[in-house]
Structure formats: C-alpha cells, structure tokens
C-alpha cells in the first residue's frame, strides 16, 4: 500500500484558496487548480485502491484528460469559483479528510469534499453542508455491496464508524506500551490459532495505525516485522518505542515530510532522518566522555568523606565541593556503603572516558554526513515551481539528488537506475560532440541591477560544479553562514568589477535559497573562487573557504521572492 496524504501541508499556504478549475485525469483521480493571493497550484486527489493520495503536485500534462468523466464534471459544476476554507480531520486518527468550501471567505460553509483514504475502500464524495446529502461520489456503494454503510447520490453522508483501538496520543511509558502490544498479540494469537507479530498487534491496539506505518516503524527501528513480541529484546523495544514517539510528535506538530522510497515503492514519514539521528545520538553519547571528570570529582569527594557516613549512619549528606565551595548533596546507592558507591563511580568514570574516545571517529563521520544531508534537505525544500520549464529543471535537479544519494550509499538505487545512467551517459557524449553544455542552463539564473549574471545551484552536484568548475577569477562566490543552502555565483566579466548593488543582489539570493529564508537578515559568506578548496574525501558541494568577508542578505528583498 502506497497511499498518502498530508493535512498540515494544506493548512500552510493553501487555505484559503479559490477553486479555478477541476479536471478528472482518469477514473480514480481528480486535479483541482487552487489560487491564493500569492500563488497557484494543483491539488491531486486519487482514490485508487493501492496508490490513493491527496497532495499538491504539478499541473496535469497536456492530453491527460482523454475522455469526459461524469464525476469530474459534477465537481466542476458544483465547486468552480468556490473558496477552500478548511482542510481538517473530522475524527482524530481516522483517514478521512474534509475540505470545506463556501462562496466567499466570510460566508458559511456550503459544501464539503470528503476524501476517505482506506485502501480498496478509498473514495471521494461531495456533500451539501446544509442537508448532509451526497451530491456526487467517486464510487457509489449500494446495499448489495455493504450492509453497514451505503454511499449513494441523494443519500445522507455518515462518517465511517471509528476503528477499534486506543488513542495513540495518550502518553504511555515504554513499559505500558510494551505490555499493551504484548497483550494484544496474545489475544490475536488465541483468536487466529498462531502467534501474532508485533506489527499485527500494533495495528490492532491503536487507532489510525496502518500496516504501512508499522512497516515504516520497523524499518526505522531495525526490527523484523514478523517477530512475535515475546522474541523482542529490551533494546528492540526501546528502538520501536522511540520511532513510535517520533511519529506521534510529527503528527501532533504537523512537521513531517513524506518521501517515496524508489526501491520499495513505499511512502515513509520517518525514513530520511536516520543519519541525522545517528549524529545526534553520537553527540549525546559523547557527553558521557565529558561527564567523566564530573563523575570522578564526585567519587573523590565521597571517598574522602566516607568515614562520616559510617560514623553518622546516614545515606545522604551535604558535602562541600572543593572546586566551588558550595554544598552538594550526595546520596549513596541503594544497598551499598559509601566506599562501595565511590568505587562504582570510579568504574563509571573510566567507562565514560573510554566511551568518549571510542566515539570520536563516529562523531566526526556522522557530523560530516549530517551536515551534508542537511544541505540535501535544503535543496529538496527549494525545488518548487509552477511553470513547465521550471518544473522540468527541478525534476532534473531531483534526479541529480537521487544520483548523489545513491553514490553516497544513503539509499538504494531504483530498479531503472542502470537504464537511466545509460541514457544520461549518451546525453553527455552528445553534448561533448556538439561542443555545448546544458549545465549552465540547469542552474537557477538571475540578472543583477547592472546586468551581471547570478547563478544558484539546485542540488549539491550543481553546487560542486558551480564552485569548482564554473567559477573563475574575478567572480564572487557566496553561501549563507550557519544554515544549509545553495552555492551562489556572481559572474563578473574580465576587466569589470561587481558593484555594491550587484553583491547585495547575489547575497539576497544566497539567503533566499537556504534554510535562512524565513529570517529578516542572514549573514552570507563572500569569497573569491581562488580561496575555495574541496576537502579531501568530502561529499559533493562541501567546501573550505580560506579567506572570506561577510555581507548580510535579505531573503524577502531577493529577485526570487519578487518573482
């Protein structure tokens, strides 16, 4: 199952929006053109049994509508010109989205378009708000198909019955969560006559949890999905619970980015951050090394005062810290004397020192990967556009990102990778024979106030090309400081100099095409291409700057923000 939908995305930037056009591109997909004050785009809604989805996407290709579909015409007649006001879940944790519309933003809701993302039962229905009656349906369900819930034009719409299970958002400790999943698996096993897996138990125990989600959780935690709960050790449970908590937080905050794994064809809301989490985990563990000295001092203080604990027969005492002169409370460990407690702390300090030393190479490696992947993430967030030419350039840049992630062994190569690589090689040979290059055409291109060209990379491969091959003496190279972002190059013809307005223009663009886009001002590194160096063994797009100055870019004043 590869279905997906994202309500939070609809709430950020696309509500309210006017419905300008509705096209039904096939038997199970409609595309709705929305226009806001700042932008326009297409909302894709599909009730296909295995690839159901609701998401913003590119405009339908020309010729996509090869025949007239009655459902699409009914929606167009009923919704064209209305205003989309809300995108909500009528029932928490249920896979039903309600798109509420009215004639004007100030008017009461007149129509609701319901999208039911339920596998082979997926559906889209237009309902009159006042009467509650169905005006159009992607799939009509009669009494012969379902005794419990009929969905027919003219009938009253009712939400699907709530799924069994508990509310996933209710706070549960690791122990309570494990006990609930284990008990549910035992009940399922008794009913089926065979051991139930932890995945089956998780789907059954909680509302809003699909088989696709638990597969995603298992992949994130590195736990075999078919394993019965009793065969999982404590470490596996801890990893699963951590992945579960990450999902809960992502849903509650709306901060997640679904991705498609090209190797498996599965949608994932958790998969792309594993390396970033490894770096975070390694950094946390390295704190153990830094804690060694503090543990050592505490053990020394306790050992020097052990006799006082024995004399007074107490388990807690305030002792003067030799370094600060302040009193600190030191409590003995349960069942141990003062000397035994201090000896245990000495052992812990030694382990912390060893952990710190052994983790240094891991921290260095994962920190580099983390910085690189944050640059990749920033590039992905910037790939957007409505014009066909821009979309095509972004698709090429997206292909470049996939290629570099495969080359860096961050993801598996898709099934058609060999064929795509062969076609790309032929294209490069053809360019070489013709003496032309499309590399410069693929960069984002802008013109400064005095007519100079500003190039901005779309991904790390283009950033690398821009910094180490395209840039020449006299050009001005830029990158926002302290944030992931694109490399920016102000091209200056030989014998000319860049004016202050040109430099400011390029700095504004460097700030805009970065994670600092939401800031009012952002520091931008300015350097000569001669001062750029590629670190040995580094990832694409990573540079060292030998000499730099700083300008402040204003993202909102950039040419990209104005276009």
Automatic annotation (TrEMBL):
GO molecular function, one term: tRNA binding
Location of the NFACT RNA-binding domain: 443-544
Any one Gene Ontology BP term: rescue of stalled ribosome
Region (Disordered) location: 531-563
InterPro entries: NFACT_RNA-bd (IPR008532), RQC_Subunit_NEMF (IPR051608)
UniProt feature, compositional bias: Basic and acidic residues: 548-557
GO cellular component terms given for this protein: RQC complex
Superkingdom of this protein's organism: Eukaryota
Annotated protein name in UniProt: NFACT RNA-binding domain-containing protein
Source species of the chain: Apatococcus fuscideae
